[in-house]
Amino acid sequence: MDRRGENLIRPLMLAIGLHIILLSTFFIAVSPEAKTITPPPVVVIQATELTFAPSAAAEARAKQKQAEVDRKQREAEEKKRQEDVKKQAEEKKKAEEKKRLADLAKAEAKKKADAEAKKKADALAKQQAEAKRQAEIKKVEQAKKAAKAKADAEAKEAAAAKAKADAEAQAQAKEVAKQQAADEERKKAAALEAERVKQEKALEDAFKQAEAEARALEELKKKEEAELAVLNALASEKAAANVLDAMTTRITRAWRRPVAFKGGLEVYLRMALASNGELVDVRVVKSSGDVLFDRSALTAVKRAAPFGEVKQFDAATFEEKFRSLTVKFRPED
Hints:
The protein contains five helices and three strands, in the order αααββααβ. By secondary structure, the chain is mainly α. It has a three-stranded antiparallel β-sheet. 5% of the residues are buried.
């Protein structure tokens, strides 16, 4: 037993003894014999307040217990702090994921809208090009009709003028013959001969005039044919240019950008076509200096073939313009 136990027993025994004495005095006082018996003198015990100092082991245990409590409290606080940090991180991650999904949806919507706008723009450009081509064709047809109408009108005017001249010549001849017959009855034979010579001369003059008019009509016809040939050549050149532009556009659309493409490159390609637009051959005639870019251009041409637009031209135009042609491929154009 330690010292602290010994210090507690002593006052406990004193307290018990004091209570026994007090109880004994009470019973003696209330008993019948107590009336004749003189009570004993009261023994007064002075109670002293005792203070017990805790032992070193008790203090160590108390400190250890308090340290354990403090440790558990710190661990609980640390655990709560980590849970709060984890919760905040999860909430932040959820917010970032939500923002990422929103940005992704926004980018996808923009990509879709851009593709739709490009598709509409391409369709509009194609419609405008077709309308322009039809207008050019219509303009050429109108020019042809106007030239033909002009030539027909001039021919009719020339025929009318010739008929009028013949009629006037005949009327004049008749008038002269009538005057000569009236005035020179006696010189009938000479007059008839003179009239015959005159008529022959008139017929010769009329024939010469008819030949001149025929030559004029022939020259006019040749001029008309030359003008028509120029118009046809212009229309053919325009149509060929439009078809070439359409072919270049289709090749550009079929082109796929190579990896690490820097831009600013161009390559010249020699294409050989069949009359139905099928691609017979394609090769590089002037390289860009980048092998991957040259190969991508060749692949784009093969992917864009066949070029059915060339079927609209006659054999001569096809042979001249499209049997073998060289195109410059530059994606930025």
